[in-house]
Specification:
This protein has about 475 residues and is α+β, with helices and mostly antiparallel strands. About 45% of the residues lie in helices and about 10% in strands. Among the domains are: about 60 residues, lambda repressor-like DNA-binding domains (434 Repressor (Amino-terminal Domain), Orthogonal Bundle), CATH 1.10.260; about 140 residues, Orthogonal Bundle (Arc Repressor Mutant, subunit A). The longest helix has 30 residues. The protein is globular, with a radius of gyration of 30 Å. InterPro entries: Cro/C1-type_HTH, HTH_RamB, IrrE_HExxH, Lambda_DNA-bd_dom_sf, ScfR_C, TransReg_Diox_bact_type.
Length: about 475
């Protein structure tokens, strides 16, 4: 029977150093020559089972210390999953080698990374505090292209007037009698003016894509997995990229993004905006919104779009000199990741924040499909009306879990009284919320997950407050 061989030189050297033994001393205790031990430590000879058993008996160590790399690989995997450095690692073998050969270095890298993430979070909190007090700051966490693009869209008004005007003019030339005629009209336009044929494609043919334009065959492929509203948006986005190319370029230049990748991401976002502007023209949608008292579900039915599409369009309605309500939008997932922040006047980060667990957007995830309307009061006295509802993602193969997110549409509470939701929340008590736990100084909050960075912790062992974190 062949003898099992284990190459564990670095781990054996680590144990010897921990025991403060020389190679000569350890070799004598194990009954082997120092030169043979040296070869084992350099992985030029295997650690046999017999020698492993002798190490366990003589030094009372666990066999796992010599047979595995422990949790080092998992910790390093977490570090190198960060988007900032994910592309630096060609494969996992290097992680195994680092954890195997230099476990202390592996632990130090993990500790440094976690400290970096903690400091990035604190800098973000400090930036939010300064912004709330009217001070601009360049403090931020990781500045990836996606972060730069998101920051620009969050700070500015979600209004692109050039695209609205171009989309409204184009929509007028189609001479539609009802919104449900738009898909056929766009397909006819692409075929007659650009020679592009729109073809639905089964999910198994295009499993990873929603839309693909083949320039050689002049065909636009749309996945059959898409619901009709999503298919319409992809179709309208392709039309927008062709017809509104100049307007998209001018709006893109006005954003003043620093990198080419951030510009490309912003261009995709502008194409999606153009698609919604084409599906829901500004004037017609604005009139319908006022007439329907900003009922998102009624607007979605009127324009044959989804709840998310109608809510997103509402966040772009307000214009200077008009009485249209200035809505803002927030989208989160089950894990609390913020996916989108938009606002007709910019997202109110300083006044509203959007990081409080008391907001209806989190409760909506436990009540799929139900619209929740809540009156919110912030610590500084600002009051908001919020409307929340879940959004079901694109279905996958059988057995795949459908991605579910939640949208929050908000506005000032006083302005929200003219909406269909204002009447529903009028008798309800105000929900005492905050911008985020680290920025909120409400005392006795049962939902608090972290202490505020603006107050020292209360470390009195004679007192226990209602909150998980007492502070002075």
């Amino acid at each position: 029977m062949a003898e099992t061989k284990i190459f564990a030189g670095p781990r054996l050297r680590r144990i010897r150093n921990r025991l403060e033994l020389t190679q000569t001393a350890m070799a004598a205790e194990l009954g082997i020559s120092p030169s043979y031990l040296n070869l084992i430590e350099r992985n030029q000879r295997p650690l046999t089972v017999q020698l492993l058993l002798k190490l366990v008996a003589v030094y009372r160590i666990e066999p796992e210390e010599l047979q595995g790399v422990g949790g080092g690989v998992g910790q390093l995997r977490e570090v190198f999953a960060d988007p900032l450095i994910a592309a630096e690692l060609p494969g996992e073998q290097e992680l195994v080698e680092v954890a195997e050969i230099a476990p202390n270095v592996s632990a130090a890298i993990t500790k440094l990374y976690r400290a970096y993430k903690e400091q990035a979070g604190r800098l973000s909190d400090l930036s939010a505090i300064l912004a709330r007090e009217g001070h601009e700051t360049a403090l931020a966490g990781t500045r990836l292209p996606i972060d730069e693009m998101r920051a620009v869209f969050e700070r500015r008004a979600f209004v692109f007037s050039r695209l609205d005007a171009a989309a409204e003019a184009f929509h007028g030339r189609l001479q539609l009698s009802s919104p449900d005629e738009l898909p056929a009209a766009l397909k006819a336009y692409l075929k007659s003016e650009h020679g592009i044929v729109v073809s639905p494609v089964p999910a198994h043919v295009m499993p990873d894509l929603r839309r693909r334009f083949d320039r050689h065959s002049m065909r636009l492929f749309l996945s059959e997995r898409l619901a009709p509203p999503d298919r319409l948006q992809e179709l309208a986005a392709e039309v927008g990229l062709l017809v509104f190319a100049e307007e998209i370029l001018r709006e893109l230049e006005a954003l003043k993004l620093s990198g080419s990748e951030a510009r490309r991401l912003a261009r995709f976002e502008l194409a999606r905006y153009a698609a919604l502007a084409l599906i829901m023209p500004l004037a017609a949608f604005g009139e319908a919104a006022v007439r329907l008292r900003y009922d998102v579900e009624a607007l979605a039915a009127r324009f044959c779009v989804s709840f998310a599409q109608a809510a997103t369009r509402l966040a772009s309605l307000a214009r200077p000199g008009t009485s249209t309500i200035a809505f803002f939008l927030l989208e989160v997932d089950h894990a609390g990741n913020v996916l989108r922040k938009r606002g007709a006047d910019g997202f109110p980060q300083a006044g509203f924040g959007g990081g409080c667990v008391k907001l209806g957007v989190h409760a909506a995830l436990t009540q799929p499909g139900q619209v929740l309307a809540d009156p919110i009061e912030m610590p500084d006295g600002q009051r908001f009306l919020t409307v929340s509802r879940t959004v079901e993602g694109q279905p996958g193969d059988f057995g795949d879990r459908v991605r579910r997110t939640a949208l929050l549409l908000g506005c000032e509470l006083e302005a929200g009284q003219s909406t269909v939701y204002g009447r529903a929340v009028k008798p309800l008590p105000l929900i005492a919320a905050g911008p985020a736990c680290r920025l909120c100084e409400r005392r006795g909050c049962l939902a608090r997950a972290e202490p505020p960075v603006t107050r020292p912790l209360g470390l009195d062992d004679q007192v226990a407050g209602l909150s998980a974190f007492d502070f002075q």
